[in-house]
Amino acid sequence: MIVTFDGPLAASAYELLGVAATASDDDLRRAYRLRLRQTHPDTGGDAATFVRVQRAWELIGTSDARAAYDRGRDGSRWAPSSTRTATGTRPRGRSYGVAGAWRRQRFRELLREHLGHDATDAQAYDPAVVRSAPWEVRRMLADALAAEETAAAIDELGIGFTAWHDVVTGDDDTLDHVVLSPSGLYALVSEDFGDTVRFRQGEVIGAAVHGSTPVADMLARIRVIAKAARVRFGGAILILPDEDLAELVTPLGSIRGMPVVVVRRSAVRAVLRSGVPGARVLGGNEAFDVRTRLAQTVRVRVP
Known about the structure:
Largest sheet: 7 strands, mixed
Number of strands: 9
Helix content: 40-55%
Low-confidence stretches: 1-5, 83-88
Mean pLDDT: 89
Strand content: 15-25%
Distance between the termini: 31 Å
Strand order of the largest sheet: 1-2-3-4-7-9-8
């Protein structure tokens, strides 16, 4: 499982358990047991919230884990990915564009408007500054982080995969990721609403969604790219934080002829390797042709 800290929109592990960050270990343990009873699906609780409570305990349930979590709450993990060091020696997949880059730029612009002045990097990613900003500002940073996490997962799949990040679909519109894999051609959108979500009639719903239609928007962007490049996508994948979903993979069925699944971020690699259920598989020659068409057509947004 990918280890994550609470994001710009999400409640902290302490808030999920209903205790202060200064709570004793005994109080923390009692709070966890209480929240388990309150959220357990067998007693009428919400399954996704139950998962989030368990995830919170994984993050702060032991002294070592709690210390690591507290160190990470200074916002350093929200800093641009260029400050992080890549690990591992496995050959990485081919990729174009910088995932989340234009969102980070937009986040800084919105933050400047909110503060009335430019912020240093340290100030911009200070949790106290971010959490005091309007929802639109925090959402922009949350989505940038989500896109970066997904891109990192795709890179680790190896040389059989090609990815385009922040693909332009309009003057102010992009599709987060286009991935050509041995199992097919997929479009991916990385989201972080900061809370659990539900699904109804092939769309994401919930208070945290703020009335948006992420699945419909994703399908509209896919059609733009498919028409321009004259390619057929095999499936659409909406990626959310692990703690926001009760299941690893939630199939939404075929929507407008496109198989759509919602997956936890930790399951992205497995889904891309095995393929989206119901997606058409590309043959070798067709895959080469699709890669050529995309390379000639796709434009990635440069901030």
